[in-house]
Amino acid sequence: MKLLRYAEQNGGIPLTQSMGAFHRKCVEWAAHEFQWPGYEPEILYSVNKVLNEPDFPPLSILHWALQDLRIIRHYKGKALLTKRGRSILVNHGELQAVLAEWMLAAPLQESLSREAAALSWDLRHMLGIVSNRLGDWVTLGDFTEWALPVELFPARGPLGRRHEAGWFIAHNLVRPLTWLGVLEGSPQNVPAMSIIDRQFRKTVLFDKFFRIGLPIGIEAVSLH
């Protein structure tokens, strides 16, 4: 929402000529304004002298999402709000909903074949596990085994299929859910820790935000 207001107040966001990315001035503003956990300015500047859009992944993915959702459009070297973008400026709930649907519709980063990814991506099943089993801290390794057919993943290197599957679900489900505020990582998670051993749980927002229904054609049966 801050980014949409920035676009409105500045008559659009200038784009780079080479890549059509947000201009460096916007990226620097966003890094300081968002204070995104794990991507705070001091962390970003520790590895970059200047900030370009690819250096700030949350902004880069947000740019992609807003354009794909036709909330912004590129026109004459700027990213401008569309009619839909202007209408959503006062509706945080609608913005949260459309971003959630976009981010969870399909894998953002496929670490296995497209066919295997399609077989793995049972979103209703995955969200059901979060709802029913992540009320307390759970390791990513356990969550992965509950959520995915680990045997579909290639056994690259010494870490094996479980680690590959863990990376897949970390990037494509855990990260989006964390960015959406419905999943959180344990304070004990540290960069040196194996990703499989990191712990996560749902936040209080999860059950308020998601309603997980039955597949079409299946009805709930009451047992007496």
Tell me what you see in this structure.
With 224 residues, the protein is mainly alpha-helical. It folds into two domains: 2-102, no CATH class; 110-209, Arc Repressor Mutant, subunit A. The chain is 49% helix and 8% strand. The protein contains eleven helices and six strands. The chain has helices at 2-9, 24-34, 41-47, 57-68, 83-88, 92-104, 114-120, 123-133, 140-147, 160-179, 204-209; strands at residues 13-14, 72-75, 78-81, 138-139, 183-185, 199-202. The chain has a three-stranded antiparallel sheet with strand order 1-3-2. A three-stranded antiparallel sheet has the order 4-6-5. A hairpin with a 2-residue loop joins β2 (72-75) and β3. α9 crosses α10. The longest helix is centred in the C-terminal third of the chain and has 20 residues, at 160-179. The chain starts with a helix and ends in a 15-residue tail after the last helix. Residues 218-224 have low confidence and may be disordered.
Helix and strand topology:
Layout: H1 2-9, E1 13-14, H2 24-34, H3 41-47, H4 57-68, E2 72-75, E3 78-81, H5 83-88, H6 92-104, H7 114-120, H8 123-133, E4 138-139, H9 140-147, H10 160-179, E5 183-185, E6 199-202, H11 204-209
Antiparallel strand pairs: 1-3, 2-3, 4-6, 5-6
Helix pairs in contact: 9-10
